[in-house]
């Protein structure tokens, strides 16, 4: 049965490698976006590619799975290096298997897609510059704009658009990687995820533990870390934008304490997992965003504008605007006792609200906006996805979290979704038609894209 897993392929040679299979052609769906640098906007003919985490991986020159259910084929994959020598990664049927479709400048990603081999849940895609490289963006001194329709993204689902400092070529050539960006390899983010099956050309077999809730996933000994700029984590009920800093540059394979996952401790590793989040609801404006929202009505599409103030590698502020119904909507204003009326992300904003909420300011400890700016200047890849949360049911985005804390305590309430909502099995069964639509992507000078 087809598995939605992230697996590297290999050359049938002595050195471990990552090689594309030959059972399914890989054709990247087209997606047009606009570059608005220099005073005018011009179309750019791009494409998107599916992350290797969702692709079928099998024995080279055969059909036997290298990973089935949420466990490795121990014969083909007794260790990471051998697995990389034995297994191949396949091309994708984007619409039929993964529910990913494009039309001109619009991308739609479905949450649930039934296909001949079973059921696919969610997807993650990257914007491509050409067939072998991801499109890289340096956001400093620029703004990034897109239209989004979250009217069909319910509690417990995240229709996300964000940037990560992953390699432009997907790690092509690392340990013989022969698939690269063309097959969606090289993912990393500030959560240092352990469910990535191959990292830097080696299978994440050691210490692999199947997930108790997700029949297709598990976690291995290693995580894959990098700096992350969350432009948009949202559903129809809640939204946030969040920079996450790391002490490392580019993709970094972590282990143990440096992944911030020893004995459940989120802190002390190489990346800031909490980030400095700007959530309208959490910061005190509970009517601003949502179905029938006083400022942004999620029953209808709208435009999201994010501005990165600064120059060179110096990032000083991240601002947010919306456009809906032909009207420019300024960002919500912080309404938290003891915190100034901020309306953007600055280092001082992060310090003040985290102190008010009693949250550790690991964002500052790991570099703050200076560290984020240095990372953005090195170039980031655009990621778009839809997913459900088997760990926390997305309550950190759209409900009260942690659930055992008083919702009236500052920083706990993040949305109006019930604390028993977002259970993936329930969402998948009861709202399988959920989808997110991103369109009209624009990148350019400040105030040039809307």
From TrEMBL:
PANTHER family, per the entry: 1,4-BETA-D-GLUCAN CELLOBIOHYDROLASE B (PTHR33753), GLYCOSIDE HYDROLASE FAMILY 7 PROTEIN (PTHR33753:SF2)
GO biological process, one term: cellulose catabolic process
Keyword Hydrolase: yes
Domain of life: Eukaryota
Gene Ontology MF terms: cellulose 1,4-beta-cellobiosidase activity
Pfam family, one: Glyco_hydro_7
Reactions accelerated catalytically: Hydrolysis of (1->4)-beta-D-glucosidic linkages in cellulose and cellotetraose, releasing cellobiose from the non-reducing ends of the chains
EC number: 3.2.1.-
Native organism: Lineolata rhizophorae
Entry protein name: Glucanase
Keywords recorded for this protein, A-Z: Carbohydrate metabolism, Cellulose degradation, Glycosidase, Hydrolase, Polysaccharide degradation, Signal
Region (Disordered): 405-431
Residues annotated as signal peptide: 1-17
InterPro entries: ConA-like_dom_sf, Glyco_hydro_7, Glyco_hydro_7_sf
Family: Belongs to the glycosyl hydrolase 7 (cellulase C) family.
EC category: hydrolase
């Amino acid at each position: 049965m087809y598995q939605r897993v992230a697996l590297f392929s290999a050359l049938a040679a002595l050195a471990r490698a990552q090689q594309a299979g030959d059972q399914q052609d890989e054709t990247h769906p087209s997606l047009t976006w606009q570059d608005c640098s220099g005073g005018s906007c011009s179309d750019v003919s791009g494409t998107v590619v599916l992350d290797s985490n969702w692709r079928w991986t099998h024995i080279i020159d055969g059909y036997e799975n290298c990973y089935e259910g949420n466990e490795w084929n121990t014969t083909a994959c007794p260790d990471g290096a051998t697995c990389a020598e034995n297994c191949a990664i396949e091309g994708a049927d984007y619409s039929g298997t993964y529910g990913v479709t494009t039309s001109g400048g619009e991308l739609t990603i479905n949450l649930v897609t039934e296909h001949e081999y079973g059921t696919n849940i969610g997807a993650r895609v990257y914007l491509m510059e050409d067939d072998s490289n991801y499109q890289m963006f340096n956001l400093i001194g620029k703004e990034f704009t897109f239209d989004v329709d979250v009217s069909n993204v319910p509690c417990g689902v995240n229709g996300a658009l964000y940037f990560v400092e992953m390699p432009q070529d997907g790690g092509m050539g690392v340990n013989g990687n022969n698939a690269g960006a063309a097959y969606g390899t090289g993912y990393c983010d500030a959560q240092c995820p352990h469910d990535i099956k191959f990292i830097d050309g080696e299978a994440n077999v050691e210490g692999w533990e199947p997930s108790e809730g997700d029949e297709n996933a598990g976690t291995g000994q290693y995580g894959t870390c990098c700096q992350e700029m969350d432009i948009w984590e949202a559903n129809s009920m809640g939204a946030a934008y969040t920079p996450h800093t790391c002490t490392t540059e580019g993709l970094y394979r972590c282990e143990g304490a440096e992944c911030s996952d020893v004995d459940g401790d989120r802190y002390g590793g190489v990346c800031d997992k909490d980030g400095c989040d700007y959530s309208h609801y959490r910061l005190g404006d509970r009517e601003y965003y949502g179905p029938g929202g006083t400022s942004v009505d999620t029953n209808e599409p709208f435009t999201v504008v994010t501005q990165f103030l600064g120059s060179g590698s110096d990032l000083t502020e991240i601002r947010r605007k919306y456009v809906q119904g032909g009207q420019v909507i300024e960002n919500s204003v912080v309404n938290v006792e003891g915190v100034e009326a901020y309306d953007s992300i600055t280092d001082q904003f992060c310090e003040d609200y985290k102190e008010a909420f009693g949250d550790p300011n690991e964002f500052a400890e790991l570099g703050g906006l200076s560290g984020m700016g240095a990372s953005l200047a090195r170039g980031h890849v655009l990621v778009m996805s839809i997913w459900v949360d088997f760990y926390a049911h997305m309550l950190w985005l759209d409900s009260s979290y942690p659930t055992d804390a008083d919702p009236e305590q500052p920083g706990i309430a993040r949305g109006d979704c019930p604390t028993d909502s977002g259970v993936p099995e329930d969402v998948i069964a009861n709202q399988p038609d959920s989808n997110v639509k991103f369109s009209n992507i624009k990148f350019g000078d400040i105030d040039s894209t809307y």
